[in-house]
Automatic annotation (TrEMBL):
The lineage of its organism: Eukaryota, Viridiplantae, Streptophyta, Embryophyta, Tracheophyta. It is found in: Vacuole membrane. It comes from Erythroxylum novogranatense. It comes from the Eukaryota. The chain crosses the membrane at residues 32-56, 68-86, 107-126, 138-160, 172-192, 204-224, 245-266, 282-300. GO terms for cellular component: vacuolar membrane. This is THH1/TOM1/TOM3 domain-containing protein.
Length: 316
């Protein structure tokens, strides 16, 4: 072994030891989980403050898309905050299915929150092209209903009896059925023993990929439409930047979630639902929820005008 190879091997060993030391330290685990709780709490507070500001600006309107988006952000981040505050207690809850519910339910709400943004953009895009948008809201509620029903069904199956093979088939069908609308996802069959946690991860990999494709499809369409708009103005440029930034952020967010869920499903070293992987949890939740939420809330911070609102749509 050369001197350079020896130095590289030593550095890798030290890095591995550092990683293992943090993962096995109860103090580090609690510190990282509490740091995540603080970050989620701050994001929830920002979303709530913005919701109140919007309500004070346009009290005459009901539950608009913008208000619902910020309210769901508050719920998602508030729930995550609570889970990480009591993360060690959550890990010891019995039956085991309650752990899955507490850890996965905010992910369902996160999907709904940003699917709402895709719906809003799709409505703007089709209205600008004088195309009927009557079926968009029905599609939005139908897709969310299917996602929730299948996820709840899987929880009930696991509560009744842990049958990994049946759950795996259901999850793979779930991931593939949505992707057949726009593309397909091939999950290789193998004889690897997969736990029920891996089944949930496989499910979320498919859902996350669909969400990323949705942002690319409608965010990209709206961006190109605004780019071709003949009138040059400051408002147009700002809207163009807003759509471009949010599309990029959300697409990357759900794509990273998809990739991480695939590793989580088939590699125990990447398991996110255990206490002794705090650094991995910190990286994962920062990349797929906290940073995207902060950036999107900052980009969409502009309040609606008081009168003459033409692009402010209430949810009926």
């Amino acid at each position: 072994m050369t001197e350079v190879e020896a130095v590289v091997a030593l550095n890798l060993k030290e890095a591995h030891s550092w990683w293992e030391h943090i993962n096995e330290s109860v103090k580090w685990q609690d510190s990282i989980f509490h740091a995540l709780a603080v970050l989620y709490g701050l994001v929830a507070a920002v979303a709530l403050v913005q919701l109140v500001r919007i309500q004070l600006r346009v009290p005459e309107y009901g539950w608009t898309t913008q208000k619902v988006f910020h309210f769901l952000n508050f719920l998602v981040n508030g729930a995550r905050c609570g889970v990480f505050v009591f993360r060690r207690n959550v890990q010891h809850i019995n039956p085991l299915i309650l752990q899955h519910i507490l850890l996965d339910l905010p992910s369902l709400a996160f999907f709904t929150t940003y699917a709402l943004l895709v719906l809003f953009w799709a409505e703007i895009y089709y209205q600008a092209r004088a195309v009927s948008t009557d079926g968009l809201r029905l599609s939005f509620f139908t897709i969310n209903a299917v996602v929730y029903v299948i996820q709840i069904s899987m929880w009930l199956v696991l509560w009744w009896k842990n049958i990994p093979s049946i759950v795996i088939l259901s999850k793979m069908f779930f991931a593939g059925s949505f992707l057949s609308v726009q593309n397909f996802l091939v999950i290789p069959s193998s004889s690897i023993a997969i736990t029920d946690a891996a089944c949930f991860s496989t499910c979320w990999a498919g859902v996350s990929l669909v969400a990323a494709l949705g942002f690319l499809l409608y965010g990209g369409r709206l961006f190109l439409m605004l780019q071709r708009f003949p009138v040059e103005s400051k408002g147009r440029r700002k809207k163009l930047q807003e759509v471009g930034y949010v599309t990029t952020i959300c697409s990357l967010c759900f794509l990273i979630r998809c990739i991480m869920m695939c590793f989580d499903a088939f590699d125990q070293a990447a398991d996110l639902e255990v206490l002794d992987h705090p650094v991995l949890n910190l990286i994962y939740y920062l990349l797929v929820e906290i940073l995207p939420s902060i950036l999107v809330l900052f980009i969409l911070r502009k309040l609606p005008p008081r009168r003459g609102i033409t692009q402010y749509h209430p949810i009926r």
